[in-house]
Amino acid sequence: MKDELKGGRRIDDWRPEDEAFWENGGKQVASRNLWISIPALLLAFAVWVIWSVIVVRMPEVGFGFDKAQLSWLLALPALSGATMRIFYAFMVPIFGGRRWTTISTASLLIPTVWLGFAIQNPDTPFITFAIIALLCGFGGANFSSSMSNISFFYPKSKQGMALGLNAGLGNLGVSVLQFVVPVVIGFSLFGALAGGGQVTQEGKTLYLQNAAFVWVIPIVIMTLLAWFGMNDLSGAKASFKEQSVIFGRQHNWIMCILYLATFGSFIGFSAAFPMVIKQSFPEVDPLKVAFLGPLVGALFRPVGGWLSDKLGGARVTLYNYIIMTAAVIAVMYFLKAGNFTGYFACFMVLFITTGIGNGSTFRMIPVIFRTMHEHLNSPDLINQARKEAAAVVGFAGGFAAYGGFVIPKMFGSGLGVNGTFIALIVFYVVCIALTWWYYSRKGAEYPC
Predict the structure, then answer these.
(1) d(Cα 167, Cα 40) in Å, to the nearest integer?
(2) Domains of the chain by start residue, with CATH
(3) Residue 233: beta bridge partners?
(4) Residues 424 and 397 sit within 8 Å (Cβ to Cβ)
(5) Which of 1, 5, 135, 263 is the most exposed place for a label (fewest CB within 10 A)?
(6) Are the C-beta atoms of 321 and 361 separated by less than 8 Å?
(7) pTM here?
(8) How many other β-carbons are positioned within 10 Å of the β-carbon of residue 223?
(9) Of the candidates 110, 152, 166, which has an alpha carbon nearest to the alpha carbon of residue 133?
């Protein structure tokens, strides 16, 4: 038994709901897989949002792309990442968690290495960068498979905290990239091995290739750790046909909507925050403060999972939506008053609630599907519920990732800043009603 629980092996007997099994080796195995998954996911998020920094610097070193082309380079990773998440949601039960984490982490080398070479030549055509931007969506897609995989390892009572840690610390890849890249592009990090620098119009030398190459060695390390340190669970095996039953489950679609309000808001606000600050308060340098939003959102995601393990996911989610709605109203008030301090503080509250809501909604999913299969008197209830819940976790993650494209486009559309905030308030109120009716009210069919 002990040998079977080592890294790099398939585990045929996995019973996390069995307390004796959990305490006699199960917890250690789950923790090992989690703590390899987290940095792998962090790197994936860093690769996903790499264009947020690259695009700002490209015109300085001679790339003649117009604003529309640059905006597409920002948008394409979000579009491809969200779309690929839908497919990645089903990969772990087909390939196994260890195998798929290894494959998906190694795939990050394709856009990073290619970008590192392409960015050194200002004559590189736009279509090349567009393809690389699409491939950066691999990083965003990894979230769905990573969350699906970790959900199999933990008992229902501990999934909120585990998924919160995996997602929350993984989401820190956004802030880590925004801290690291501005530093490493300022000097020759790899010497002649990575090529020469690019001279700006002001005569400053930049090494934009470092923005990509700096992630190569960590990606290789995490690929090896995933292969040799993680496990495949044979009990998690399922074909796409078996998993596709979720498309007929009403609660899959409800949770997609609820998660769109939390993670979709988080990734959408993360992308749009600098632009919104610049539009609303032109005297403020957004790059000095905007990174704090995704930072606090990511850090509070495990808190949402932890609170949900203690208080119940539906209760935390319900009150979280109420606070989100109030925070948007407060943001609008301070925007109208021209008070940046109040505006920024309320936006930080909004980011915090997106993080808490990310954790609490994911905590709801396994409980809902366990209850549903209990009502259906399903044979092999635990395994069926876990497989469906894992598929929903991944699929909802893919659905919500479109918020990274939609929300920035809303702010830049005819709706404007105020119109977008009003639309979000209406959406959050709808989510309050859905959460209360289906999961939180007294007598709800699926209390969680």
Answers:
(1) 11
(2) 1-237 (1.20.1250.20), 238-448 (1.20.1250.20)
(3) 11
(4) no
(5) 1
(6) no
(7) 0.78
(8) 21
(9) 110
- Binned average pLDDT, 10 residues per bin, the chain of 448 residues: 70 89 92 96 94 83 84 85 87 90 97 95 94 94 89 84 85 85 85 80 86 96 96 80 84 95 89 78 80 88 88 95 97 94 96 94 90 81 79 85 84 81 96 96 89
Angle made by CA atoms 361, 89, 91, in degrees to the nearest 5 = 145
State in Å, rounded, how far the first CA of the chain is from the last one.
34
Residues 6+ apart with CB under 8 A from 173: 41, 42, 43, 44, 45, 46, 47, 48, 49, 139
Paired tokens of 357: 């809501």
Alpha helices in 49-125 (DSSP H): 51-57, 67-88, 91-95, 97-106, 109-118
Tell me the three state secondary structure of residue 190. coil
**Strands 205-206 vs 198-199: parallel, antiparallel or unpaired:** antiparallel
Q: CA-to-CA distance for 90 and 225, rounded, in angstroms?
A: 22
